Amino acid sequence: MKPSYVGICGSDLHEYISGPVLIPKEKHPITGEKSPVTMGHEFSGIIEEVGEDVEGFSVGQRAVVRPTIYDGSCSACQQGCEHCCKNIGFIGLSGYGGGMANHIVAPAEHFYHLPESISLKVAALIEPLAVAWHAVTISPFKCGDNVLILGGGPIGIGMIQVLKLQGAKTIFVVELMDNRKELAKVYGATNVLDPREEDIPKAVHKLTDNQGVDVIFDTAGVEGALNGVIPACRVHGTIVNIAVWEEAPAVKVNDLTYKEVNYLGAALYDETSFKDVIKALEHGQLKPQKMITAEIKLSDAVDKGFQQLLDHRDQHCKILIDAQAS
């Protein structure tokens, strides 16, 4: 495959700053590869060559890559939860190449045809949108619920779109950065709250007839932020964690206990969620184009990509690399 567009993910930034983190230091049990590897796991492209035993693909087809690598034999895989595989890995982090390259070769099972209505640029957003879709799917959320999203980064903005599509009544977003606040409003957040300016639980209860929200989705992974919104959750509500925490948080468990609030982890996405996002994009139900805040050449990935996100995070949501631009 010739990669077309690849998104720079938060996990890519962690690898750039202090890796290897998820990139294996020893040979990965499935790919057999270790650091250094080619990065880039959110990407689309054009198929250039097909293995002799591969069916259903042909040269010239546009495709998107589902990067999750799993062994198929562990207990999680046997339960149909490949995304929770004991030996989970990613194309672009664990081997098989990555999207930040001129070409990539990987098993055919990772490739999915792109409908004509989905551009190659938008297709690079399918992977992070699948994370949001899966989190909503496994949560107890139902149409008409009040929800709160911690964090207005790419996953948080994706959460707004998915929740709005699925009928959320009120969508609160807790965010500090002005650009992300504005983007949250563009995508349909009902109320954007800044904890530096107001008491979040008090504001939420005031706007929900003193009930609180039904579900909180944490995409931020910040201890103070999480503890600060637990009181905003209703009795028997649910907090869904999507964030990958850098350090173990000291969660106010008693606050969860006294209101019998459920705490649920959402890991990556399954194949169904990945396909559902493709269908939603195909039918125009999700329109994530405004998430793309910059497009750069592969040769500029460090200065105009990684460093830009580190130094000017308040100006960006998702930077795409045009892997074929000269």
TrEMBL record:
Example of a GO MF term: zinc ion binding
Signal peptide: none
Gene3D superfamilies: Medium-chain alcohol dehydrogenases, catalytic domain, NAD(P)-binding Rossmann-like Domain
UniProt superkingdom: Eukaryota
Keywords, in A-Z order: Metal-binding, Oxidoreductase, Zinc
Residues covered by the Enoyl reductase (ER) domain: 10-321
Required cofactor names: Zn(2+)
Entry-linked Pfam families: ADH_N, ADH_zinc_N
Matches recorded under PANTHER family: L-THREONINE 3-DEHYDROGENASE
Family per similarity comment: Belongs to the zinc-containing alcohol dehydrogenase family.
Protein name: Enoyl reductase (ER) domain-containing protein
Source organism: Penicillium canariense
